[in-house]
Structure formats: structure tokens, C-alpha cells
């Protein structure tokens, strides 16, 4: 691209070093952290059932009794498990590979927009340095996979705007469709993408460009038709089971969820941290949506401005999708893990607005860019943990608990165990896949001291039910292993 300077060696080395460090953190976490409730449920109920054809089960009520089936993730879990074995790392490997795609797209975008400024440093930390987002790239769930495809889709959209090649718009749509296969929540992104693309084409009608080929349009239409045909029945079944009712009551509360989870329990400003950061970041987002439309004089910033406008429309339409969906269907706004759908488009919008304005003054760019980047890295350093996942904190010690019982057995012997329902899928996963000498009682939400087992694993508030027949054997970070006297 004429007029666009490339990174210098220091910038490239810094960005790649940060990206590789983040990838190593995610890889370590994926291979060392205990399996979680939802991951284990997916494996036990879908992946490990060889008689179940995952691709053709879109009409099977069993596959869609809950929203736990993130289809593409489930299929890839089966593939990696069949090749490597049912280990934590193998089952989470597909999401780690999408993290590679995510980071590569971020680097390629930054390579073209940094132009000698500190935007590169801010961008790599902002887009890849969120500890909550990183959780989902180290999990066998569809959320991180969806984010990877969203980033690929946005990268392709950027290339289409910059180079006007039809192959990029096709790639953008295909990646968005893949995100939906990874997790149905990303259907909202696909709708917003089409809306933003339509508005972009309307705003640039006067610009000379090649007419989009009929085959390209036909490919996109067929892709969307297949998506509608494939997921129509699953969506109906999930609605019947009330799976879309989980969430929060307003868009503001959804934003609070994103901020709370991104902070990862770190309270930089005391008890008011969440409210202060949420309010400040909301104002910054609103400012970015507006200033993205301000014209620029420099020719080398016109493409950035154009893509910034595209992103501002996409973010507004993404928010509008959930508002309209809530008003007409009563569906809740996304919360927790579902709310991360906003993160990538919002962070990329902030980045492009910063890119447009930081390059005006080298000194200001140096101060603000480095300050923001260092602040984000400092938060990541303080918040990141390789021991647990924020959404599934209760399963942090499940693997350790199971193997502590194995250590108590003698060859040819076994121990009997019952667990609180939250811990059952992950406990069952290890007992089944590793063939451990533990007799695990069937899944039950009832806790009773009359249960004929040697050990119980549960939360402290349930322990009194078992006393005095059971006494504390070991405290696993707030989860108790009780032993029959």
C-alpha cells in the first residue's frame, strides 16, 4: 500500500514477543488447568459418544437439549481426542489454534496502521492482553473459537476496504459464518457485519470500483441459506428449553459484565473500581463511535478513517441487535462469557480511532501510547492466573482432588466418592478417561449422609448436612473433601 510505512525492527520484535508470550500463557493454562464443568459435559455427552454423528445431529433433540453444544468446537474436540487422546491440552487445542489466527490477524492489521507510532504497542496489548478473553482461548468451548473467527472476519473486511478485492469480502462472511458454527451467540455479529457492509456500500457508491461478481454474491447467499437451514431447528429447540433466557436485564448491565470480568477481580480503585471503569470506558466508546466519523486531511489516514466508520456502525448495530431482540422476543442481554462478543469489535474500533489521532504528534503518541500499553500489561500481569478460569472457578481443584484420592488407594483397590453436582462432570471426566480406581456415584443434586460412600466433595455450606458422620479430610481452596468416620 503506497504511503504506508512498515514497522521498524523494534516494533515488530515487541509485538511478536508480546504475542508469543500470550500464546505461551494460554498454552500453559490449557495444559495444566483442571477440566471445567461445561467442557467435561460436552466431552461425556457428545464427544465420547461414537455412535452420534455430530454434523448430522442438527435435527436431533438430544444434541440441543442445552446450549452446551458449540458445534464446531465439539467436532474438533472429537478429532483432536481421537488423534492425541482425551487430555486437557488435546481437547483445548482447537481454541489455541484459533488464538494463533487471532494474534496473526492482529499483527497484520497493526503492521499496516502503526506507521512508526506507538499504536502497535497499544494495539497488541489492547486486543490480546485481556485475561478474561484469553481464558476462552485456553478452554474447550466455542467462545474463544468464535472470537478468532470474528478477528479473521474483521481483518478480511479491513483488507476489502483497503484493496477492494472480492475475495476478502467472501472471506469475511465465511469467517463470520464459522463463528456462528463455533457458538450461536455470534449470529449477532453476522447480522451486524451485513448491516455495516450494506451501509459502507451505500456511502461509497460514487467511488469508482469494479462491480462485485455474480459468483461472489451467489456464494454469499448460498452460505447464508445453508446456515439458516442448518441452525433453524437447533435454535427452535434451544428456545423451547429456555436457553436464551439466561443473561441480564439491560445493555448497561451487559457492559458491567464485560468490565467486571475483564478486571478479573483486580480492584485498582477500591470498591468503586467496576463502576468507575465501566462509566469511563462507556464514555470512551461513545466518543470513539462519534469521532470515527470526523474527516481527516492526511491521505494516508483515509483508509483508517473509512474502516473506523465501518467499525463504529458495526458496534452500534451489534448493540442494536440485542436491544431489538430483547424488545421483540424477551431474550436477555448477554452476560458473562456471552458478553465477550462485544470485545473484539469495540477494541478494534478504539485502536483505529487512536491510530488516526495519535500520529498527529510524535511526543503525545509516545507518552499516551506507552502509558496505555504499560497499564494494560500491568493489569494482565496482576490478573492472569494459570490455575483457574473465572467463569468456572469452582473446578480449579477438581483434578487435584481426584488424584489425591487415587494416592490413597492400593493396587487392585478403589475408593467410593460422591460429589456436589457442580463437580460431577469434571470428576467423571478424569475417572472415565484416565481409568482411575474411583467409584463415582451417579449424578445427583441431593446431598445425604446416608449415601454409602467413603468420601464427599462439596462446598462448605453443604458440609453441615454430612456432620457428624463425615469429617474434613482436606480443604481445596474453599471446596471440602469430607471423609466418613
Low-pLDDT residue intervals, each spanning 5 or more residues: 1-7
Radius of gyration: 24 Å
Helical segment tally?
17
How far do the termini sit from each other? 75 Å
Share of helix, binned? 55-70%
Round the mean pLDDT to the nearest integer and report it: 88
What fraction of residues sit in β-strands? 5-15%
Class based on secondary structure composition and strand pairing:
mainly alpha
Q: The biggest beta sheet, please?
A: 5 strands, mixed
Overall, the morphology is: globular
Tell me the total number of β-strands.
5
What is the string of SSEs from the N terminus onward? HHHHHHHHHHHHHHHHEHEEEE
Q: Looking across the biggest beta sheet, what order are the strands in?
A: 2-1-3-5-4
Descriptive report:
The chain has 485 residues and is mostly helical. The protein has helices spanning 9-32, 37-47, 71-84, 88-113, 119-128, 131-137, 142-163, 166-182, 187-203, 214-240, 251-263, 273-291, 302-329, 343-358, 362-383, 398-406, 424-433; strands at residues 415-419, 438-440, 455-458, 470-476, 479-484. It has a five-stranded mixed beta sheet, covered by helices on one side. Helix 4 (88-113) packs parallel to helix 7, helix 5 (119-128) packs antiparallel against helix 14 (343-358) and helix 5 packs parallel to helix 15. The longest helix has 28 residues, at 302-329. The chain is globular. The chain starts with 8 loop residues before the first helix and ends with a strand. 43% of the residues are buried. Mean pLDDT is 88; it is low at 1-7.
Amino acid at each position: 500500500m503506497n504511503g504506508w510505512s512498515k514497522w521498524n525492527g523494534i516494533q515488530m520484535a515487541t509485538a511478536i514477543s508480546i504475542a508469543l508470550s500470550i500464546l505461551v500463557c494460554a498454552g500453559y493454562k490449557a495444559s495444566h488447568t483442571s477440566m471445567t464443568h461445561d467442557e467435561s459435559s460436552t466431552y461425556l455427552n457428545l464427544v465420547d459418544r461414537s455412535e452420534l454423528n455430530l454434523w448430522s445431529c442438527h435435527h436431533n433433540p438430544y444434541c440441543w437439549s442445552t446450549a452446551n453444544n458449540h458445534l464446531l468446537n465439539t467436532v474438533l474436540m472429537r478429532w483432536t481426542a481421537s488423534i492425541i487422546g482425551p487430555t486437557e491440552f488435546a481437547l483445548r487445542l482447537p481454541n489455541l489454534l484459533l488464538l494463533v489466527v487471532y494474534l496473526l490477524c492482529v499483527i497484520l492489521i497493526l503492521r499496516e496502521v502503526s506507521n512508526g507510532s506507538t499504536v502497535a504497542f497499544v494495539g497488541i496489548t489492547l486486543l490480546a492482553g485481556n485475561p478474561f478473553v484469553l481464558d476462552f482461548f485456553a478452554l474447550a468451548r466455542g467462545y474463544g473459537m468464535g472470537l478468532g473467527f470474528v478477528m479473521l472476519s474483521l481483518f478480511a473486511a479491513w483488507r476489502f476496504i483497503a484493496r477492494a478485492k472480492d475475495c476478502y469480502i467472501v472471506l469475511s462472511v465465511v469467517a463470520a459464518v464459522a463463528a456462528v458454527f463455533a457458538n450461536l451467540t455470534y449470529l449477532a455479529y453476522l447480522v451486524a457485519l451485513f448491516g455495516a457492509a450494506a451501509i459502507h456500500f451505500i456511502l461509497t457508491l460514487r467511488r469508482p470500483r469494479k462491480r462485485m461478481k455474480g459468483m461472489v454474491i451467489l456464494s454469499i447467499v448460498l452460505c447464508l441459506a445453508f446456515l439458516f437451514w442448518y441452525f433453524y431447528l437447533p435454535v427452535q429447540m434451544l428456545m423451547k428449553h429456555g436457553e436464551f433466557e439466561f443473561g441480564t436485564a439491560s445493555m448497561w448491565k451487559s457492559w458491567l459484565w464485560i468490565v467486571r470480568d475483564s478486571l478479573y477481580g483486580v480492584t485498582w480503585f477500591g470498591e468503586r473500581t467496576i463502576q468507575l471503569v465501566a462509566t469511563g470506558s462507556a464514555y470512551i466508546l461513545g466518543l470513539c463511535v462519534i469521532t470515527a466519523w470526523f474527516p481527516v486531511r492526511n491521505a494516508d489516514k483515509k483508509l483508517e478513517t473509512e474502516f473506523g466508520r465501518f467499525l463504529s456502525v458495526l458496534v452500534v448495530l451489534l448493540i442494536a441487535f440485542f436491544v431489538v431482540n430483547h424488545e421483540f422476543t424477551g431474550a436477555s442481554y448477554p452476560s458473562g462469557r456471552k458478553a465477550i462478543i462485544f470485545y473484539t469489535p469495540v477494541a478494534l474500533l478504539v485502536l483505529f480511532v487512536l491510530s488516526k489521532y495519535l500520529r498527529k504528534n510524535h511526543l503525545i503518541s509516545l507518552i499516551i501510547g506507552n502509558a496505555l500499553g504499560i497499564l494494560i500489561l500491568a493489569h494482565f500481569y496482576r490478573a492472569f492466573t494459570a490455575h483457574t478460569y473465572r467463569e468456572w472457578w469452582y473446578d480449579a481443584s477438581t483434578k487435584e482432588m481426584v488424584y489425591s484420592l487415587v494416592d490413597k488407594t492400593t493396587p487392585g483397590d478403589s475408593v467410593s466418592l460422591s460429589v456436589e453436582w457442580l463437580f460431577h462432570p469434571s470428576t467423571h471426566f478424569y475417572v472415565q478417561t484416565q481409568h482411575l480406581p474411583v467409584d463415582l456415584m451417579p449424578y445427583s443434586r441431593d446431598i445425604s449422609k446416608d449415601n454409602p460412600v467413603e468420601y464427599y466433595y462439596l462446598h462448605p455450606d453443604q458440609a453441615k448436612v454430612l456432620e457428624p458422620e463425615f469429617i474434613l479430610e482436606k480443604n481445596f481452596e474453599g471446596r471440602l473433601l469430607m471423609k466418613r468416620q
